[in-house]
C-alpha cells in the first residue's frame, strides 16, 4: 500500500470470519504501520488490505497521525447506566466509545445528544454505557480512560439537582402510599374475603410501613437541602420532563434510566406523553399494546423518539392505580426484556 490516502477500502475480519468490506480512514501508528479506523479504534492493515477486529488495536488519538488535543467531556451518572457527553464530530464520539470498550466497559449506544448543557458543557454526541460496579468517582475514572478533563458541577448546581430529585421522590412516595391505602380500604370492606385477602392485607401493611419510613427519610433530607442557598435551574428540558411526570402523571413510576433516555436521546417527547397519558387514565392495558414474551405481566408498544420509530415503552400494572414504565430503544430490546423478566 503506497502513500497515505485519506480513506482505503479494507476487508474487515473477526478472527477468521469475514464481516464486511468498507472504506475506512487511514492513520499511521507510532511504529510506522498503516492502520484503518473502524468503530473508533485503529487496526493495523494486514496483507491483502484487511484488518482483524479480534487482534491488536489502538484508540485513534494515540496514533502518530492524529492531533491529540485533550477536550473536556460531560458525564450524566446513574445507578446502573451512565452517559459520556462529547463535543465535536462523530469520530470523536466513536473514539470515546472505542476507549471505553478497550477498558472493559459495555457500550450500549451512541448518538446525537439532544439534552440541555450539563455543568455549562455543550455536547454534540453521547456514549451510553453500563456503569461499572464499585466506581465511586465515575468522572475521575473516565478522565484516566479518555485522557480528557471532565466538566464538573459547581456545588449549588449539584444541590439544586438533589433538591429536585428529593421533591420528585416525595411526590412519588405519597402516591404509592395512597395507592396502598386505597387497596387496603377495598380489601377490608369485602365481606368474607378469605385467607388470600388476609395475606394481601398483611403484605400491604408491611409495604406501607416501609414506604412511610422512606418518605420520612426523604422529607428530612429535603428539609436539610432547603436550608441551603437557592441555585439556578438545572435545565429547561429536564425541568419540563420532571414537572410533567410529577404533577400531571403522578401514577407513572419510571424505572431504571427512563428519565435520562427521554431527556438525552429523544428529539421530541410528544409520543412519550401520549403513551403515558393512555396508561394514566386506564384501568387495563390500552389498545395497540402487545404482550412481551419472556417477561410475564409486561406489555410494550413502539414509540417515536422524534426521528424514527425505534423507541420502545414497556409497562405493567403496579398496586391499585399505578403503572411501572421503562422507556428505551429497539437496539436494547433483548437486554431490556431480560431485565424486565427479573423484576
Order of strands, widest sheet: 5-1-2-3-4-6
- Spans with pLDDT under 50 lasting ≥5 residues? 1-5, 229-233
How many DSSP helices?
A: 8
Q: What overall form do the CA principal axes indicate?
A: elongated
For the sheet with most strands, the description reads:
6 strands, mixed
**CA-atom Rg in angstroms:** 24 Å
Termini gap: 55 Å
Category by helix and strand content: alpha+beta
* Overall average residue pLDDT: 81
Which percent band covers the strand fraction? 15-25%
Using DSSP, what is the number of strands? Answer: 15
SSE arrangement, N to C: EEEEEEEEHEEHHHHEHHEEEEH
Short description, anyone?
With 343 residues, this protein is an alpha+beta fold. The chain has 8 helices and 15 strands. The termini are far apart.
List its salient traits:
343 residues; alpha+beta; six-stranded mixed beta sheet; five-stranded mixed beta sheet; 8 helices; 15 strands; 24% strand
Verbal overview:
- The protein is α+β, with helices and mostly antiparallel strands and 343 residues long.
- 38% of the residues lie in helices and 24% in strands.
- The protein is built from 8 helices and 15 strands.
- It has helices spanning 90-102, 138-146, 155-189, 195-226, 236-248, 258-265, 270-280, 333-341; strands at 7-14, 17-28, 34-38, 41-44, 50-52, 58-59, 73-76, 81-86, 107-112, 125-130, 252-254, 290-291, 299-303, 311-318, 322-329.
- The strands form 3 sheets. It has a 6-stranded mixed β-sheet with strand order 5-1-2-3-4-6.
- Strand 13 (299-303) and strand 14 form a beta hairpin.
- The longest helix has 35 residues, at 155-189.
- The relative contact order is 0.09.
- Mean pLDDT is 81; it is low at 1-5 and 229-233.
